[in-house]
Amino acid sequence: MKVIMNKLKQLFFRRRRFTDLSVSIDEHLQERIDELVRDGLTREQAAQRARREFGNVALIEERSREVWQWPTLEGFLWNVKYAVRQLQRAPGYSALVVVILALGIGANAAIFTVIESVLLAPLPFANESRLALLDTHWTDTGHTTPRVTGPDAVDVRSQAKSLEAVSLYAGGDEGVQLHDHSTYTTVTWVDEDFARVFHLYPIAGRLFTDAESHRAALVSEDFARDNFGSAQAAVGQLLHIENEAIEIVGVLPGGFTYPDRTQIWEAFPLLPESMTRTAFNYRAVALLRPGTDFKVAQAELNGLSSRLETAYPAENRKKLIVAVPLAEALTGSVRPTLLLLWGTVSLILLISCANVTILQLARSMERKREIAIRKALGSNPWQVMQPVLMEGLLLALLGCVAGVTLAIPTLRILVAIAPKGLPRATEIHLNGWVLAFTLCISVLTVLGSCLLPAMRAARVRAAEAMKQDSSRGMELKGTVRLRDSLVVAEIAATFLLAVAAGLLLRTMATLMNRDLGYQARQLLVVDADAPAHAESDYQRVILQFNELFAELGRLPGVEQAAGVMGLPTGPYGSNGYYDARGGLPVDQLHKPWAWFSVASPGYFTTMEIPMLRGRDFDTRDTYASPFVAIISESLAKQSFGDRDPIGRQIQCGLDSDKWMTVVGVVGDVRQESPADKPGPTLYMPMAQHPYYANQIHIVLRTKVKPLTLLNTVREKILGVNPLMSLRFTTMDAMVHESITTERFRAVLISTFAGTGLLLAMLGIYGTIQYAVTMRTFEIALRLAFGATRDQVLRGVLARAVSIACYGILLGVVFSLILTRLVTGMLVGVRPIDPVSLSAAAALILLMSLIAGLAPSWKAMRVQPMTVLRSE
Question: What is the pTM of this model?
Answer without folding.
Answer: 0.81
